[in-house]
Amino acid sequence: MKIDVEYLQFMWPMRHFLISCGDINDKSNIIAASFCMPVSKEPPLIACAIGKKAYSSKLIESTKEFIVNVPTKELKAKIYYCGYHSGHEVDKFKETELTPKPARKVKAPIIEECVAHMECKVIQKIETGDKYLFIGEVVEAYADEKVVKGEKKIEYVVGDFPFKVYAIRFKGL
Ligand SMILES: Cc1cc2nc3c(=O)[nH]c(=O)nc-3n(C[C@H](O)[C@H](O)[C@H](O)COP(=O)(O)O)c2cc1C
Fold first, then answer.
1. Is 161 helix (H, G, I), strand (E, B) or coil?
2. What is the pLDDT of residues 100-142, one digit of tens each?
3. How many angstroms is it from 33 CA to the middle of ligand 1?
4. Which of 18, 72, 83, 104 is deepest in the core (most CB within 10 A)?
5. CATH of residue 77
6. Closest residue by Cα to residue 27 from 78, 96, 100, 83
7. Residue 51 lies in a domain
8. Domain count within the chain
9. How does pLDDT run across 42-58, given as a tens digit for each residue?
10. Distance of CA 136 from the midpoint of ligand 1 (Å)
């Protein structure tokens, strides 16, 4: 027998990313995001679906920039903190003690503890249902040298379906 399900549950597991946005000298924020994928190699483009009501959407709409930071499993608890709290209410850099460092080409900070960073400039914003799909051109991409050369082994965060997020925040995402 097959029963009806929340379709999203069967799209997972998905890799978890931390997207930083805003301005390092003003307001910046971090969102946990998994609805994130490459959509072109040349030019290099990444598409991220971000909730219309998320504080991150507001910041990305105003700066037209964001950074996809790649966290490792040591950061799992901080990823979930960023996924369960909103920048509308808390300063996530302060609360998680993740370190904001200047990026190369965008105003948002990179998250120092992550192993790789893709700086993106938004070239298109598409309205989907409850999300905006931000398509960003990757203007800089850099990573920990030891990880790139295979001298340091890391584990990415590929989590299970975050029932808690969808139970609590599904309508507000
Ligand atoms: C593992 C994980 C993945 C998530 N992926 C996304 C996502 O891809 N897009 C999205 O809009 N929200 C996603 N969320 C939920 C947001 O991180 C959450 O709504 C957050 O509070 C929004 O923060 P903001 O208001 O500061 O932008 C995810 C949460 C978790 C825990």
1. coil
2. 999 999 999 999 999 999 999 999 999 999 999 999 999 999 9
3. 5
4. 18
5. 2.30.110.10
6. 100
7. yes
8. 1
9. 999 999 999 999 999 99
10. 18
